[in-house]
Amino acid sequence: MLWLENLVVAFGAQRANKMRAALTTLGIVIGVAAVITVVSIIQGLQYLVVGQLQGVGTTYLRVLPRVTFVAPGQVTRPVLLTVEDVAAIDDQVADIEAISPMIFGTETLKFRELQHRPSFVAGVNQYWQEVANQLVDRGRFFSAVDIQRRRKVAVVGQTVVEELDLGTDPIGKEVYLGSVPVTVVGVMEEAGQTLGQDGDDVVFIPFDTALSVFGRRAGDQVQVHARVTSTEAVEGVRDRIRRVLRQRHDLGEDDADDFQIQTQDDLLDLFTSILRGVTAVVAGIVSVALVVGGIGIMNIMLVSVTERTREIGLRKAVGARRQDIMLQFLIEAIALSLVGGAIGIALGYGVGAGITAVLPVDLPPAHVPLWAIALAFGFSTVVGIFFGIYPAGKAAALDPIEALRYE
Predict the structure, then answer these.
(1) Which candidate, 237, 193, 136, places its Cα nearest to that of 362?
(2) Does the model's pTM come out above 0.70?
(3) Could you give the CA distance from residue 30 to residue 46 in angstroms, rounded to a whole number?
(4) Which residue, 27, 297, 301, 314, is the most exposed by fewest CB within 10 angstroms?
(5) Where are the alpha helices (DSSP H) in 93-206?
(6) What single-letter DSSP state applies at residue 231?
(7) pLDDT tens-digit readout, 230-253
């Protein structure tokens, strides 16, 4: 009950000096609000990206060339993944359900008087739908015949349909990809936005057709995308792909891989690691504000001890113990810090929600996890205790007779 009584006294003291209490907790409010703002935005981003990656599935993996930088703008050697690598993986690695090479390019699309440059144009094979776990919404995807005969056909995203005003039935319409006429044979199902990147602003064309459209004689700078038969088989497939590529690239036992194999878990771990790093850096920076806020609390508590010296002397004269006085002022310091933390949490969430709503990019809604709220209150409590101990100790050490004589 003594804790409760001291808590009531503490909040009563804050109500009696509202302006001073507000200014005292300002540093805590700013520090906690900054942390909550950053955490709310980052957590929203994490939910979005994790959702997108989970949509790809746990049986997805991709192989990329590894680029080692030895100086700004300089790499050790050009690393190539070729269509022959893709064929070797397909032939020698078991448990692969579907595999596709991919090359990227940027070309302007034209339809009648309209022009549009999509986010990217990708050359893939007929298995891309199974690999990417993304199906055609209207029309069809490429067939093996389209690939073999290098047909000039395209499957486009919904944004491309709208930008070129292809209408409700774009199938069969001829558009120009650069100077090459291609016929639209399908429209992909909507993929939505990811971090401001429009997943529907894409064009897929047959891999060999892409080589000629992009002016490449051979497919030697490709990515490899694959779908494994089961989640349990992913690690085994990764090891077998590694052995095949190391053998094809004549890598010795001491040579590092000149490629990297990424699974869904790798991508999640990489993204989570980046977010944790950003959160830690920001938390370290704003902790300065929390320390400054704590110093402010200590300062105002020292003033409070001086102002209430006679009250302390009177309490000691009627039997209050040293620990009772110390507990009273310590609880007041913690209460000040907790009030600042609570205001900071509400302010931080409001700012985070405002930022995500105002920015032109399609950021996900702000989200504040329970651990962040608990951390904010916990840190506020620690700040209150740490910076409240000295004033509380000073009050507890006062001599009752000297305190009663204090003017």
Answers:
(1) 193
(2) no
(3) 24
(4) 314
(5) 128-132, 144-148, 158-163
(6) G
(7) 888 989 999 999 999 999 988 888
